[in-house]
Amino acid sequence: MHFSLLQSPLLRPLLRWTAPLLLAAFSLSATAQATAPSTLRIGFQKSASLLTFQKSSGSLEKKLAPLGVAMKWVEFPAGPQLLEGLNVGAVDVGFVGEAPPIFAQAAGAKFVYIGFDPAAPEAEAIVVPKDSAIKSVADLKGKKVALNKGSNVHYLLVKALEKHGLKPSDIQPVYLPPADARAAFERGAVDAWVIWDPFLAAVEKQSGARLLADGRGLVNNHSYYLAERGYAEKQPQVIQALFDDTRAQAAALKANIKAAAAVIAPLQGLEPVVVEKSLTRYQFGVKPLTAAVAAEQQKIADTFHAQGLIPKPIRVADALPGSATVAEAAR
């Protein structure tokens, strides 16, 4: 005769007491596995000097270890590619300039703003060769201008042209990533280049490129920390650890820019003096988004739509944190 242990009169009282406990323990274990990620995947650009400095120090790995979270750094050539990585789930958090989120949101990408860095208008500019006949932005009419489409400098170009009575259609945009744009610029295939630091500092020093206009009086050039919305809302403790470490590394960098440049330079393939110059033009220290900064992003979105650069109007508010814990982590 078949006999089940579960039917034993000796085990029935024990099961009445232990079954709920076992179920609770299983539930807690499953919840912990669901809410404690094993790895934080950060999308970054090698040109993002603070994150490159942070990565080299290994400080974030140490900060996350008590949470049982490992680190994975995923490098991208520029912001638009990083946003695509965030949209397809290749990374959890990313750091980009002000324009890429606008283009990405217009394309239907799902993300949330979780923090921003202070304005750095001098860290991006329109440059021309040192012997160029072009003397002002107005002279760019009909000229070939290289830029990384959808990057932070896209908005700088639009605003600079607008200030001089021109539209994007008045120039010939040549969309190239930084390395290809530098090559095109130096061989004379384009007339001007719109670029950010440290590439800006490099072409100024190494090629004698002449500044036509930087962001001062035109744009703020904020940088943003973005995350997949579900990740941001479920992992505020990880974001808190990320921001705590980011602030600490920013303070260390600013306290000794020369030493930081010596660390960063070989990782970016640049001379320390070039990196040092670029670091002086950036301000670091992640903060929670304010209504004023969100309004600035909305202005960029409205400008891009009016210029036909994005196919539809967007609401930046739709990509703002929906959880108080997310905003609190940035404080």
Automatic annotation (TrEMBL):
Xref: Gene3D superfamilies: Periplasmic binding protein-like II
Superkingdom, taxonomy of origin: Bacteria
Keyword 4Fe-4S: no
InterPro entries named in the record: ABC_SsuA_sub-bd (IPR010067), Solute-binding_3/MltF_N (IPR001638), SsuA/THI5 (IPR015168)
Domain Solute-binding protein family 3/N-terminal: 39-270
Keywords: Signal, Transport
Leader sequence residues: 1-32
Presence of the UniProt keyword Magnesium in the record: no
UniProt-annotated location(s): Periplasm
Primary location class: periplasm
Pfam families for this protein: NMT1 (PF09084)
Matching PANTHER family: ALIPHATIC SULFONATES-BINDING PROTEIN-RELATED (PTHR30024)
Family to which this protein belongs: Belongs to the bacterial solute-binding protein SsuA/TauA family.
Listed name of the protein: Sulfonate ABC transporter substrate-binding protein
